Amino acid sequence: MLKLKVKCDIMKVLKVDLSLEKTSYDKLPSSYLKFIGGKGIATKLLLEYLPPKTDPFSPDNLLIFATGPLNGIALSGASRLTCHFKSPLTNGYGESQCGGYIAHAFKKAGIDILLIKGRSDSPVYLLIENGKDGEDGKGEAIIEDASNLWGRDSFETEKILLKKHGGEILTIGQAGENLVRFACINHRKGRQFGRGGAGAVMGSKNLKAIVVKGDKEVKPANPEKLKEFRKWLNDSARKTHASMTKYGTPGIMALTNEANVLPTRYWQKGSFEEVEKINAEALSKYVVKSTACFACSVACGKIVKTAEVEVEGPEYETLFALGSLCENSDLEDLIKAAELCDRYAMDTITAGNVIAYWMALGKAEFGDSKRIIKLIEKIALRREEGDLLAEGVKRVAEKLNSEKEPIHVKGLEPAGYHPAGLFGMALAYATSPRGACHMRSCAYRPNLVGAIDRFSVEGQAALVKDLEDFYAVVDSMVLCRFLCLPIIGPIYWKELSKLYEIVTGEKMEVEDLKKAGEEIVNLIREFNLREGMDGETLPKTFLKAIGEDNFRRMLEEYHSLRGWN
């Protein structure tokens, strides 16, 4: 087995032009290294290679998958891949991250970055294998016919390709094929590039799947130090993440409901009267085993099984979106709905939001679990009213000329934290570059646990700014959120700096990392401004709940801290 040391002066890029049916390998110049890897470098490439104002469904749109310096090594949280594109849902910056084994597979295949453009004339999949050329990292990348896979769901597609090739697989389902604007990319039947419509971009290119396999081994610069760090991290995570290991992400539902920030009945309420029917305790009765990403000690994934289906999840965000937001307390139907979303490969957060909006319009009854399942099928296949709902809440409201306010920021529907009781999240929804996202700052955590007064404007701007910079670096490393959650930790700026040196052999002090985080955030803002993406505002429903003056004050302070005034 060929062993490769992690080096900061080599970034191998596989470029695929589906229109020309051409693949090639390249190396990035060292000037890119100030952006670390992953998100930072992918954003730089997006700005440089994507023509301004490109239609998201144009062949010119890019799909960039990027690893970071931490990927390829055995470490909890270090098995994530990041994906960047122009979003068909928001017409702005699109990004998503996926766990599982796919990032590790990229490194084993000798690839740091995969850049895809163009559109195939017919359905294809991409087969990537390391191979003949040894240490230069070049291997085979073949564009294969996928006509027999088109029309199949993501689970079926993965099963067929696994039997044929092995390796690790990314695939879209019918939602991506039908250009549902919030289609996602599926991996291992339960891990997704979830938000923003990456699956629709992939579908627009007639690219059904990506198969990645290799036998290269990545070695850190300092294996002994990594061994020490790994032990410390695993020991710490066992203490700080015990609930995550036991329940997975649904464990937070009891806290959000009690704090009155669990979005319910399409953002009209902050708690769900029947929450005990869909919370972590209720779900645990269906859990048959836990799963983990490559080399991770947390094992937050939960496989659940009912008489009808077996699926990984549903996660907290799915339980909120297809549960409380729709006032749906039928857990078995909710699990079935989640499984369908995964099969068709579409984002459960937007799916739940758009269905709940449909209910708020009086087009369906709140709590009708069977109707939710039917609507998911119609959305994925773009049939009947599903053709409209496949556009997301912003476009639904525009096409219906509805007076009922659609809840979104920049076109992206919010995650499961009602900002009426989380002022930090109110600001974070507005400043997040991809729209109403909880992951760009995770500000809900320090708000919920009382590290900062969740009903006060004081300190929220500084909190959000610091966390946005931090996670810009985390997503460039690329590292899992769960190992570096605010307050909980155990990884923060100091540990990131230490880990970077252990793996690469090069120093990046905390201040250097913070500067890199700021530069990456500024790059993303440059992209959105170039594309004319909607500004930093909130739905009137949210502004009324927190007070418009309070929001303006936080936003002005945030801009001042960023130097954007």
Report on the architecture of this protein.
The structure is a single chain. The strands form 5 sheets. Strands 3-2-7-4-5-6 form a 6-stranded mixed beta sheet. It has 22 helices and 19 strands. Helix 1 runs parallel beside helix 20 (510-531), helix 11 (331-344) packs parallel to helix 13 and helix 18 (460-477) packs across helix 22 (548-562). Mean pLDDT is 95; it is low at 1-9 and 131-137. It is of the alpha+beta class. It starts with a strand and ends with a helix. Strand 2 and strand 3 form a beta hairpin. It is globular, with a radius of gyration of 22 Å. The protein folds into 3 domains: 3-219, Aldehyde Ferredoxin Oxidoreductase,  A, domain 1; 248-400, Aldehyde Ferredoxin Oxidoreductase Protein, subunit A, domain 2 (Orthogonal Bundle), CATH 1.10.569.10; 419-562, Aldehyde Ferredoxin Oxidoreductase Protein, subunit A, domain 3 (Orthogonal Bundle).
